[in-house]
Amino acid sequence: MSKTSALRVVGDDASSTAIPNDLQAFWMPFTANRSFKARPRMVARAKDMYYFTPEGKPILDATAGLWCSNAGHNRDPIVQAIQKQAAELDFSPSFQFGHPKAFELASRIAALAPNDLDHVFFCNSGSEAADTALKMAMAYWNARGKGAKTRLIGRERGYHGVGFGGISVGGIVPNRRFFGALLAGTDHLPHTYDREKQAFSKGEPEWGAHLADELERIVALHDAATIAAVMVEPMAGSTGVLPAPKGYLKRLREICDKHDILLIFDEVITGFGRLGAPFASERYGVTPDLLTFAKGVTNAAAPMGGVIARKHIHDAFMTGPDHIVELFHGYTYSAHPLACAAGLATLDLYRDEGLFEKSKAMEPIWADAVFDGLKDKPGVLDIRQVGLTAAIDIASWKDAPGKRAFVAMDKAFHDEGMMIRTSGDCLVVTPPLIMSESDAGQIVEKLARVIDATAMPA
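That's the Aspartate aminotransferase family protein sequence above. Prediction below.
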């Protein structure tokens, strides 16, 4: 049997429109492929707070896609901006050439970022942004004549995408263990979570700022003269919402300044309103040297990511002959015209609808709804919340770690009409910033039923 015989073909051959009658060709990312293809969780369209299945069943999106559709789905101003741009300029190289919207969007993003985070380098995803920031840090020290500063410090349970730099500095074990030795010269701070001391904290936990002092031990071990940068998430999201303890990020900044080490904030998740501010660095009053972003910058309507650099980082590269490339790094689709158009329309939408301010105002309402509705459910071990995020740790089924949350995610979709995420036996919800108080109530009610329904193995 030929490969095309397994397809229903519209047109003369498979190069026309081939409509698959099975699901095998697509190797899905971060997915239990066999389970999905046995019982698919399929969506065909989306609007505002909802996805819709191919049959038209509404699915309440309690995840903002993948932490990214902050303004809800299929927003008309963004759709129109992309359509107009596609008809006007489909592509322009950003190597030695430019287009106006790239410069406009960079200026708008720099204006949102705090203090002298003034220079924006575009890429296409959070993974690319993380690797870009790490390369910038190492190149910066070379430009400064300190080429021995190459060591990169991350944190246990940290997530910085799936490039080799990101997984080397990241600290999520399954993302690392299959891929060899990774980058040499990395080390890791301890993660910031201790259930015994932090359980059921609303917002930033009181306990844990001292964990930043572990950086002093790492510096003593390796010597500051060898360390280029420390990269952390202000809130570790993919591992199950670990908010930074009060004072922790300020302490990291102080130690980095003391030892002449760059501080990188990975704000791919926390940027663009998720924690009630344009960037979490503003919420915490800490300015990193480099800040990564992606996801919410275009409301996920087009792929885009980037790095915002402080003035001294950027200027360190601008010292040689002016006809020479200053940083040998970039991507074919950096500052893609369609992504820039989507980004500008998204920033307009955030501004015009006051979504950052709405996120901040909704935070205590959301926190109360989650804690009041779920804290006393049987098998709930902990709830963590900061901004418009929440994670609920549930007791595992005996001899099957992670399966209860997986079944809960499946039941939420098929039985409750809601999309959630999981991390181990942890249920994670990160709704769009347009969420109403009624939406928050629905999410919590559906979660409560799913937790009850998975209390014992089926």
